[in-house]
Amino acid sequence: MNAPTNDQEIIQRILDGHAEDYAELIHRHQDHIYGLCLSLMKNPTDAEDAAQEIFLKAYRRLRDFRFESSFSTWLYRVAYYHSLDLLKARSRRPAESLDALTEARGEFAAETAEIAEPTEQTDLARQTLESLAPAERLILTLREIQGLTYEELSETLALSLDAVKSRLRRARESLRLQARHFSASPVVQSGGDPK
Prior knowledge:
With 195 residues, the protein is mostly helical. 71% of the residues lie in helices and 0% in strands. The chain contains ten helices and no strands.
């Protein structure tokens, strides 16, 4: 028998009892899902954990996949809602100090913080993005960092194109307004977005 060549064929084999084929789906999509998680979590360990949780959740819900969209779009939808839950939970937790991290995770946490010294601009951008509501941060991440098109966002978020454009416009405006709080000079330019 020939090996499956596309996601739908692999999914059908998994649903027919070949669970080991799920490894191929993970292999095909892990970089995008990990990248999304890393851009949101800012910590490689947390991003790995989140990506693993997303793939487990997707596996458990694979029977819900209706073959009406691409698997990657459906997987992004699972990742979107899982990440949104994680961001909401994180926003309710108090921030940890470097001393607390060093104490809890050992000296490696302090060494990592010293190695990855952000520039003033990247630190400002991170603070500005993290000050947004989780849903705003997530839609901006999917569009600006992950590069999803409006159509992909529409499918992923189960929204109309107009609703996607409206949410992006509001998220960008929030980002621009928040940037004012962190800097006297404008960091974010508002304006159109090429399709």
